[in-house]
Design brief:
Blueprint lengths: L1 H20 L13 E6 L3 H6 L1 H10 L5 E6 L3 H4 L5 E5 L4 H10 L4 E6 L14 E6 L5 H4 L4 E2 L9 H6 L29 E6 L10 H14 L2 E6 L4 H14 L5 E3 L6 H10 L2 E5 L2 H8 L4 E4 L5 H4 L9 E4 L11 E2 L2 E2 L17 H4 L3 H12 L1
Parallel strand pairs: 1-2, 1-4, 2-3, 4-5, 5-6, 7-8, 7-10, 8-9, 10-11, 11-12
Antiparallel strand pairs: 13-14
Length: 372
């Protein structure tokens, strides 16, 4: 209770301070002065989708300091970009202090990636150009000096973010992270494929027959199967454990569900020969590491989160589309006419059409094309 009270007071006093600063605005500096601030208070998968933008900013500004403001519990992931990282939890005095300390001369360029709630801090920071998409709240948009329009035709979410940088390079396959050193505890895995059970939401859970199919396909490759992700509710987990036990005689299976931290999971993914997952955060990190991957889209919009584009040569996404139940048309609160997705935690239909309709023959074809 005391922590909650302190948090409210901390945030409220800062917002009051920022309000009075409107009468005495922070110094404006040139775009070429100071550091570059990338504001990316994003979830795990979204941070990976922003990765190509972040890497390209670093590549185009080798002698300039770049500060990345990211979500507080994703420090291990944010540090992979090898920038100065500020872990942000909520709007408070600590964050303002760290931003001032990181670049006392200010920020000549600020790039906002769907993180409008942090923009009020610029009232207290010398800054120049602010590049951003328009947010859903008009008051969050007042400080934006360069507005980037959302594409009117379908492109992957990562390329929507990439558009924040006016760069001549759009070759996503050449903008990537290198693989990480693998921890000693994984040294005996040999060549392995990851099957990632990465969600606890019923609407996104793997159909068990797909897991059986993948086990059978993995047997042909003679590669170790590594299971990652979270343990599920008892009925589903028990059925999954039974499938694993049935296939242990035919496959080498290492079950690491709920047994890795974030850093270890990223190490495993970056060194895998391939990964298959439903559309969840880790599949976007696999794409950033250029690890061959198959995503079963389920309720997600294949146009937005899939790979029906020339950008990802080592990726496949398989979806059932179109579906009337994919009736959400926003991305980070921005209405986009061509987006059709479903954000329900529980499926309201008798059958999960988005998974039941996935073409099993297509899975097999893509599996052998990518993984051998």
């Amino acid at each position: 209770m005391m922590h909650s009270l302190f948090r409210r007071l901390n945030k409220s006093s800062l917002l009051l301070y920022l309000f009075f600063l409107k009468a005495f605005p922070a110094k404006k500096i040139k775009e070429s002065d100071g550091s570059i601030l990338v504001v990316a208070d994003l979830f795990f998968g979204d941070l990976a989708m922003a990765g190509r933008l972040i890497i390209q900013i670093k590549k185009e500004n080798p002698s300039r300091k770049i500060i990345l403001l990211s979500k507080f519990n994703l420090g291990d992931a944010a540090n992979l970009f090898e920038l100065t990282v500020i872990n942000a939890d909520y709007l408070n005095w600590r964050i303002l202090g760290e931003l001032r300390k990181a670049s006392p001369e200010g920020y000549g360029r600020v790039i906002n990636i769907f993180s409008w709630k942090w923009l009020p801090l610029l009232e207290a920071l010398p800054h120049g150009e602010l590049i951003s998409h328009l947010g859903g709240k008009p008051r969050s948009n007042r400080a934006i000096s360069k507005i980037i329009s959302i594409a009117e035709k379908p492109i992957p979410a990562s390329m929507i973010m990439f558009d924040l940088l006016e760069s001549s390079s759009k070759d996503a396959e050449n903008i990537h992270l290198n693989s990480l050193s693998l921890s000693n505890r994984f040294s005996d895995l040999g060549e392995y494929l990851i099957i990632h059970i990465g969600t606890s939401h019923h609407a996104r859970l793997w159909p068990l027959d797909l897991i059986k199919l993948l086990f059978s396909l993995c047997q042909i490759t003679n590669k170790t199967i590594v299971l990652t992700g979270f343990k599920q509710e008892d009925s589903y987990q028990n059925a999954l454990d039974q499938i694993v036990d049935e296939h242990r005689q035919k496959n080498k299976i290492v079950n690491l569900m709920s047994q890795t931290n974030l850093q270890e999971l990223l190490e495993l993914v970056s060194n895998a020969k391939g990964i298959v997952s439903v559309d969840t955060g880790i599949i976007h990190w696999a794409r950033l590491f250029l690890v061959p991957n198959i995503s079963l889209m389920g309720q997600s919009d294949n146009k937005l989160f899939g790979v029906k584009s020339p950008y990802f040569k080592l990726s496949r996404s398989i979806a059932t589309e179109p579906l009337e139940c994919q009736d959400k048309h926003t991305f980070h609160g921005i209405k986009i006419n061509w987006v059709n997705t479903c954000a329900r935690i529980e499926c309201h239909l008798p059958s999960r059409l988005c998974f039941d309709g996935i073409n099993r023959q297509q899975i097999e074809k893509d599996f052998f094309e990518l993984f051998g």
